[in-house]
Amino acid sequence: MDEANWTSVSEFVFSGVSDRQELQPLIFAGLLATYLVNVIGNSMLLGLMWANPLLRTPMYFLLSQLAIADMCMVSVIVPQALVHILTQHGAISFTGCMVQLFICVAMGNMGGYLLAVVTWSLCLKMVAASWAVVIPHALLHTIMIAELHYCGNRLQHFFCDLPPLLLLSCTRPITIELVIYTEGFLVVLTPFAFILASYVRIGVAVARLRSTQALRKALSTCSSHLTVVLLSYGTLVWLFFHPDSSSIPGYKQQVTFFYTAVVPTLNPLIYSLRNKDVAAALRRAKKKILTWGTLRNKD
């Protein structure tokens, strides 16, 4: 395409989760509920880990990192989407879009690495190594996207994501596509390979169990983590094998919303708050708050 036809983009305009106006109140309520549950659940988990010495272990440190990543992911997407629904003006500056893209890519990948670290019970140095991988990875993709020339500014999405931004490019970004399908796939699939290998190892160990009680305990221990893994990677696989060919308007936005907002919200409920240690710490904290309230009323 001729360089004269390139458009200087200072902002992007989102299409939203859905173009149907009659659904906007329902979408707003769903987004708000999702955000509140995420922030309250993860903040409660972080507070319990800070206040309770029994939860200051490597395992719960990993869960706290997952909670932080989940909150960052949702907080950079959902509040802005809520404002856009209220104002009916879904615009974001070019710089704001690049910042949002960087945080989403970094936090999304970090969640996968943390799930892999938890599975193998690896040392905390692996957490630092994971950050050292996802930050440069997100920075690389953000810089490459920022260097593109765009022929429009209307994104068919509700936040700045790689695929809709690539679609606005005036020329086919072959270099970026090559990076995404090589380095990008390697970064995304590495933690999944670790998780898959760990479950193969667990499966072999479970197959050797003779006790029904031991089998139930093993399945109970793995059920929470396996649920989170299936939700996270299952959605990604669904998006990859079911692209925009769907006849449902806003199909990809709705599936992406599940991955970027709903799954991080479910993580503390599935993986942490149903944990016996966390539940016990929550009961103790509740008891302390009630006792403090009673003593204060007496004064």
UniProtKB/TrEMBL annotation:
Swiss-Prot/TrEMBL keywords: Cell membrane, G-protein coupled receptor, Membrane, Olfaction, Receptor, Sensory transduction, Transducer, Transmembrane, Transmembrane helix
Signal peptide residues are none
Tree of life domain? Eukaryota
| UniProt-listed PROSITE patterns | G_PROTEIN_RECEP_F1_2
Entry annotated with the keyword DNA-binding: no
Q: Annotated Gene Ontology MF terms? A: G protein-coupled receptor activity; olfactory receptor activity
Residue intervals passing through the bilayer: 26-48, 60-82, 185-206, 218-241, 253-273
Query: What protein name applies here?
Result: G-protein coupled receptors family 1 profile domain-containing protein
